[in-house]
Specification:
The chain has about 150 residues and is mostly helical. The protein has helices at about 1-50, 60-70, 95-100, 100-125, 125-150. It binds heme C (HEC). Heme C binds near residues 41 and 107.
């Protein structure tokens, strides 16, 4: 009996750090993706604000579009298993991301494609194209948020 109890304690000691590490990994992923979404929101706002001005700067648009594109491409990898609401952490990610992974990937890809088109328009320096490509990005944010982000 005493021996068995000793084994049980040893098993618990071995398992606990692994569970704690998984938890830490989940929390780190949540923080990283939230920071990434802040970058996405900031760069997209920079682009929209720039386009409202009388003489939009292509340099500003170019830098913001490149940063937005890099951040958008990180979205799919920002949701590893074990980083959902079950962590108890402060996250607006819905469990649907993990139960409907194909739908989430589709929503992310739709957004990435819109941002790619915007980046290409900026590189081409075509203002009319830049404006319509910018208008096409917003709905791809909403499409994903409607399905996969907690409503406040
Ligand atoms: C493929 C899905 C998807 C796309 C596309 C997407 N988002 Fe999100 N967004 C999320 C999810 C899920 C969260 C919640 C993340 C969390 O709390 O763990 C979020 C969170 C955010 C946040 C809050 C970040 C914080 O401070 O915690 C902002 C701001 C945001 N998104 C803006 C945007 C904007 C702007 C776009 C488009 C330019 C966009 N998102 C595109 C899924 C998406």
């Amino acid at each position: 009996m005493r021996k068995l109890a000793g084994v049980a304690v040893a098993v618990m000691l071995a398992v606990a750090p692994a569970a704690a590490m998984a938890q830490t990994g989940g929390l780190a992923a949540i923080e990283a993706r939230q920071a990434n979404f802040k970058t996405i929101a900031r760069t997209f706002k920079t682009i929209n604000d720039e386009l409202k001005g009388s003489r939009p700067s292509l340099d500003t648009l170019r830098a913001a579009a490149a940063e937005l594109r890099a951040a958008s491409q990180k979205i799919p990898g920002g949701f590893p298993a074990g980083s959902g609401p079950e962590t108890g952490a402060k996250t607006e990610a819905l469990a649907a991301i993990w139960t409907n992974r194909a739908g989430f990937t589709e929503a992310a890809n739709r957004h990435i494609a819109a941002v790619d088109a915007l980046d290409a328009a900026v590189k081409a320096g075509d203002m009319a194209r830049i404006r319509s490509a910018t208008d096409a990005v917003g709905p791809t944010c909403k499409n994903c948020h409607d399905q996969f982000r907690l409503k406040k």
